[in-house]
Amino acid sequence: MTSVVRTLPSTDTDPALRVVVVNGSPSRPSKTMGLVSAVLDTLGGMLPVEVSRIDVYRLGPGFTGTIERDEAPADVEAKLRLAEEADLLIAAVPVYRGSYPGMFKHFFDLVDQYALANKPVLLAATGGGDHHALVLEHALRPLFAFFQALTVPVAFFASAGDFDGTTLLNPRVHGRIEVGLADVVDLLRARATGRPQAHAEVPRPAQLLH
Ligand SMILES: Cc1cc2nc3c(=O)[nH]c(=O)nc-3n(C[C@H](O)[C@H](O)[C@H](O)COP(=O)(O)O)c2cc1C
Q1: Which of 39, 57, 58, 95 to mutate to test the pocket of ligand 1 (most atoms within 8 A of CB)?
Q2: Average predicted confidence (pLDDT) for the chain
Q3: pLDDT beyond 70 at 13
Q4: Is residue 29 lining ligand 1, measured as CB closer than 6 Å?
Q5: Residue nearest to ligand 1 atom 4, measured at CA
Q6: Which of 43, 48, 155, 174 minimizes the number of CB atoms within 10 Å of its CB?
Q7: DSSP string across 22-58
Q8: Strands 167-168 and 163-164, how do they pair?
Q9: What pTM was computed for the model?
């Protein structure tokens, strides 16, 4: 788990948003985390955030051997609670065989079925090519629909050609991140004030399609 400090300072009236990234990639370095890094850089410029990351592939045999939540060792239980108590969850995966990796699903199989209800969740994925971009809509979004989570409508996908190494270069994906995060900020402010917000002034280009 890592904390990221790229953010605006929090204040008494504007406390840091607790963002938890659930990382479904085993890679180091990772394109998936390169995409998330671009998301966090942009989000940290909009709001004070405090970021934690759960690397599901690094949770070890105590995690892979847990079948029921009440058998989870204390370190795994702490990670599950961290995700359940986030203000904003970022679910980020590489596409594996047209879906999310099994280890990522195993983490969410242990999350309490009501803990994510109404929780804002951002979806992000990377793939070898663009053909499986709809993994966001056909695999990730239904998983979080089960939890009755509030998935943000604009989700983020990038493929190998969008990166230099693990640095996201494609301006179209960066533009999509801006739009999606403006929606997140609107949503969070509306929840905080109880009032709908004027819509963010971020243009929505036609090429917002995946
Ligand atoms: C086991 C495995 C299965 C994969 N299956 C797919 C796939 O179905 N579709 C796809 O576009 N990419 C697939 N890929 C490629 C990865 O999704 C892609 O390289 C991703 O960007 C890797 O992210 P990472 O650097 O965070 O690991 C697969 C890779 C692996 C290792």
Answers
A1: 95
A2: 92
A3: no
A4: no
A5: 96
A6: 48
A7: EE----SS-HHHHHHHHHHHHHHTTS-EEEEEEEGGG
A8: antiparallel
A9: 0.92
Q: How far apart are CA 30 and CA 141, in angstroms?
A: 22
Query: How far apart are the C-alpha atoms of 81 and 69, rounded to whole Å?
Result: 11
Q: What is the pLDDT of residues 150-169, one digit of tens each?
A: 999 999 999 999 999 999 99
Question: Which ligand 1 atom is nearest residue 132's CA?
Answer: 11
**Would you give the DSSP letter of residue 162?**
G
Q: pLDDT at position 205, please?
A: 65
Q: Collect all residues with Cβ–Cβ distance below 8 Å to 67 and sequence separation of at least 6.
A: none
Q: Which atom of ligand 1 is nearest to the CA of 94?
A: 17
Across the range 57-82, mean pLDDT stands at 98
Closest CA relative to residue 100, chosen from 19, 3, 174, 26: 26
* pLDDT at residue number 167: 98
pLDDT at 11: 72
| Residue at 162: amino acid letter | D
